[in-house]
Amino acid sequence: MNDQTDATFVYLKHPVTGEICIYPGGFGQKHLDSAVKYEAKPTDIFVCSCAKCGTTWLQNIVWLIIHEGEKICGAMMDSIPMLEFSGNEVTNKIDDSKYPRIVKTHYKYDWVPKHPTAKYLYITRNPKDAMVSFYYHCKGFEGYQCPDLDFNKMFDRYVKSDIEFWGYFDHVADWYGRRHEENMLFLLYEDLKVDPKGEILKIAKFLGNKYYESLMKDNGKLLQAIIEKSSFSSMKVVSAEIISTKRPENLPFIRKGEVGDWKNHMSSEQSKIMEDLIKEKGDPSGWSSLWDNHENRAYEVSKSIDDISSAAGQAKSTMSQFVQKS
Ligand code: A3P
After folding, report:
1. Which ligand 1 atom sits closest to the C-alpha of 231?
2. If we measure between CA atoms, which residue out of 283, 290, 258 comes closest to residue 132?
3. Percentage of the chain lying above the pLDDT 90 cut
4. For residue 317, what pLDDT is reported?
5. How many other CB atoms are found less than 10 A from the CB of residue 96?
6. 212 phi and psi angles, rounded to 5 deg
7. Bridge-partner residues for 20, per DSSP?
8. Residues in Cβ contact with 255 at an 8 Å cutoff, skipping those fewer than 6 apart
9. Could you tell me the CA-to-CA distances from 87 to 27, 33, 202 in Å, in that order?
10. Which terminus of the chain has a smaller tally of CB atoms within 10 A, N or C?
11. Is 312 helix (H, G, I), strand (E, B) or coil?
C-alpha cells in the first residue's frame, strides 16, 4: 500500500537518449515512447509551461482566438492534446486542415518538437503559488495516489524539483533564456490576471496579424467575448465539461485562481526557502525579477520603493518597444 500522504511519480527513460523524465503516477513508458516521436508541423501552436502555471487558461485563450470566439466542445484534451500523455498518434490525428493544431506540453525546452514556423507560448507563475496549486492538483488526481497528501512533504519535493517534468526552477530558466526567439512568447499568469485585455491582444498579435485585426473589429466585440469566455468565473462554470479527469468535488481543477494564495499555506521558513531558491536559480538569467512589477510579488525581498518604480519604468518602456515593433 502506498503512503497516501506522499505523491506517486514514475521515472521513465527517453528511448533514444536514455535521459530520465519524471512523469505523474498513472503514466507509463508507452506514453513517453510515443510522445517523443511527434514531429512539429509548420502551423503548430505549442502551449508550454510547468504544471499549475495557467496552462489551461492559456490553452483556452489561444483556442478562442484562432476559432473566432467559438468555445471548445467537450473535453479540452480531445481538442488540445497533451503531448506527453496523448502521444504521437493521437496528436497527429487532430485535424489541422482548417485551424492550426494546438498542443499542450510540460516538457522542457529541449524536448519540445521544433519547427521554424511553429509558434511556442510559455506561461509561468510565481513558484510559491504554483507550488500550492500543485499540492491541490496532486491531492485530487487519482494517479498520484495521495488523497491525504502532506503539504510539507510536497513542499520538500517541490523545492528539490523531485516532481514531474523536471520541476519548476530549471524549467523556467531554460524557457526564459529563449524568450527573445522570434517564434516564442513568454507570458506571466499574473499579467493575465491584471490585464487580460492587453495580454490577449499581445497573444493574438503573436499568433498572427489577422487574429489581432479580427479581435479589434466592431469595437473589439470579439475581444470582449474572449475576455469573458476565458474569465475565471466562466471557466469555472464549464470546468466539469472541459476537464476530463475526475476529481473530488472539494478539489476542483479550476480552483481559486488567485495571486498570493501561498500566504495562506506556507510557513515563514518555507517562504524563505523559496525566496533563496528563486534568487539562486533566477538571478543568473534574470527570471527572479519577473514579478518585481506586481503588487503581490513572488517573494518578498527588501527592495526600496525606488528600485520598484524603476523596474516598473523599465517594463513600461519594454512594452512600448514591443508595441512599436509589432
Ligand atoms: P489555482 O490552483 O491556484 O486556483 P494549469 O492549467 O497550468 O494546471 O493551472 C491551473 C491553475 O490555473 C489553477 O490555479 C487554476 O485555478 C488557474 N486558472 C485556470 N483558469 C483560470 C482563469 N481563467 N483565471 C485565473 N486562474 C485560472
Report:
1. 23
2. 258
3. 83
4. 44
5. 14
6. -60, -45
7. 13
8. 133, 136
9. 11, 8, 30
10. N
11. helix
Q: Tell me which of 255, 259, 264 to substitute to probe ligand 1's pocket, judged by most ligand atoms within 8 Å of the beta carbon.
A: 255
Neighbours of 142 (CB within 10 A): 13
Q: Which ranges of the chain have pLDDT less than 70?
A: 1, 295-326
Residue nearest to atom 12 of ligand 1 (CA): 54
Ligand 1: nearest atom to the Cα of 53: 7
pLDDT for residue 295: 62
Predicted local distance difference test score (pLDDT) of residue 24: 96
pTM of the model: 0.91
- Which pLDDT score, from 0 to 100, does residue 244 have? 80
Tell me the CA–centroid distance for residue 30 and ligand 1, in Å: 28
Please state, in angstroms and rounded to a whole number, the distance separating the CA atoms of residues 11 and 13: 7
What pLDDT score was predicted for residue 47?
98
* pLDDT score of 300: 43
- For the chain, helix (H) and strand (E) counts, in that order, are 13, 6
Identity of the amino acid at 295: E
Binding-site residues, ligand 1, Cβ < 6 A? 49, 51-57, 129, 133, 136, 230-232, 235, 254-257, 261
The three-class DSSP label of residue 183 is: coil
Q: 168 CA to middle of ligand 1, Å?
A: 16
Question: How many CB atoms are located within 10 Å of the residue 209 CB?
Answer: 11
Is the Cα torsion angle 312, 172, 53, 301 positive or negative in sign?
Answer: negative
